[in-house]
Amino acid sequence: MRVLNILHDSVVDGEGLRTVIFFAGCPHFCKGCHNPESWNIRNGSEMTVDEVVAEVLSNPLCEVTLSGGDPFFQASEVAEVARRLKAHGKNIWAYTGYTLEQLLELGGDYVELLSYCDVLVDGPFILAERDLSLDFRGSSNQRVIKLAEVLVKSERT
Locate the Radical SAM core domain: which residues (predicted)? Predict the structure, then answer.
């Protein structure tokens, strides 16, 4: 899979101290994106699932954030990374330009990746709705979704 960077000790990419994996590739091309170099899937370095997991686990104090780009652009491989990190008890946040509803509709690897995530920050960044006062998101259309609460409710209906 293509990885731009793995950053340890972040306090701005989710609650608590986090290791952030920035994946390459994004289909959304949001105007005003803070990381446009992540759009191109050819950017970054090729890493195996084992390499990514080992690097994340090298800092045992941190929880995990999947970012990019869009981690769902490489959903199959990122789902395996998330599965292994969840097996180590990691709390996992994911950022995506898709909405939760779009991911659920896409199904397959997208839903598998969601199943390992605790929190999803969804929706494209919209420059006209930029709001620096918001925690963990850049524009007011984006949602911070605790997936356990939402997915349990959707299973009841």
Answer: 12-157
Residue 91's identity, in one-letter code, is: N
Separation of alpha carbons 36 and 46, rounded Å: 19
Is 84 strand, coil or helix?
helix
Residue 88 to residue 82: CA distance in whole angstroms: 10
54-71 pLDDT per residue, tens: 999 999 999 999 999 999
pLDDT in tens, 8-25: 999 999 999 999 999 999
Question: What residue spans define the domains of the chain?
Answer: 2-156
Q: How far lies 30's CA from each of 5, 72, 129, 139, in Å?
A: 20, 15, 12, 11
Could you tell me which residues come within 8 angstroms of residue 125 by beta carbon, excluding any fewer than 6 positions away? 30, 32, 33, 34, 97, 138, 139, 142
The answer to whether 19 and 65 are in contact (CB under 8 A) is yes
- Domain 2-156: which CATH class? alpha beta
134 half-sphere exposure, CB direction, 13 A CA radius: 15
